[in-house]
Design goal:
This protein has a single domain, classed as 4-Layer Sandwich (Phosphatase 2c, domain 1). 30% of the residues lie in helices and 26% in strands. The chain is built from 7 helices and 13 strands. Strands 2, 3, 4, 5, 10 and 11 form a 6-stranded antiparallel sheet that branches. Strand 8 and strand 9 form a beta hairpin. Helix 1 crosses helix 3 and helix 6 packs across helix 7. The two termini are 23 Å apart.
Length: 281
Amino acid sequence: MPPPPFAASGGFSIQCKTMRHPNEDRFTIVEALSTADASVGFFAVYDGHCGDACSAFLADTLHNRVRESPAFASGDYKQALADGLLSTERTYHMQVIENEKAGVVDENPDDDGPKQSSGSCVVATIRTGPRLYIANLGDCRAICSVNNMSKMLTRDHKATDPQEKARVVEAGGFVRSNRMFGLMSVTRSIGDFEYKDGSTTGTLISTPDLFEEEITPGHQCLIMACDGLWDVVDNALAVETAVDGLRAGQSASETARELAKLAVQRGSNDDITVVVVPLNI
């Protein structure tokens, strides 16, 4: 099999120093997801909350479920991402139910087993030779550097977003203090079953937004990260930092680390996870 036509991708994750809990973030990099085409890669960032049970399960499971989707074999990569997310959440929910039946309760915050309260935001990308296919839930974000300019590839699902706020209100919910029900800042996630009714029209849903982006010669790199980065580093600065680092000979992992360090320097008070995928640089 010929090697992928892209430079190696890389990621970095750091625990928030002001938090007492372990790092709840995870990331996945699979450079060759397809045995038939080495250019098809999978990259994801998972921002867990209320423990790392959900984010860890996603990191172990989602890429396999995407690959197992019939849509993946047919080249319908957006549908494969949607299928993979649905299948992964269903399996995770089954494990939560099994834990409850076995008497594993949700009272111990240090218990890392599947639980009703644990959830995760997600941004996942399939990269082929000519295109990117992206799915996101919550406030994990993907951007691209295109000719040294930042281009947003996803839409944050937050209670402060007018479109998401309107959806929540229409579903019977409310937003208070910029949080859904005054509790959650995000409006879409995997897990968090204590807030879900199992429908696609509820207040908190697991329906991803799906995007497609053509990779042109001007597309330099893809940056995916959780809100630990985006809350303190804007898209333009992230692109400038990444492009400068890659051009200076940094590996993608080193560049991801530099972005995380920048977020720490700028006062991030959250776990920080970054994945950098070089394209044409």
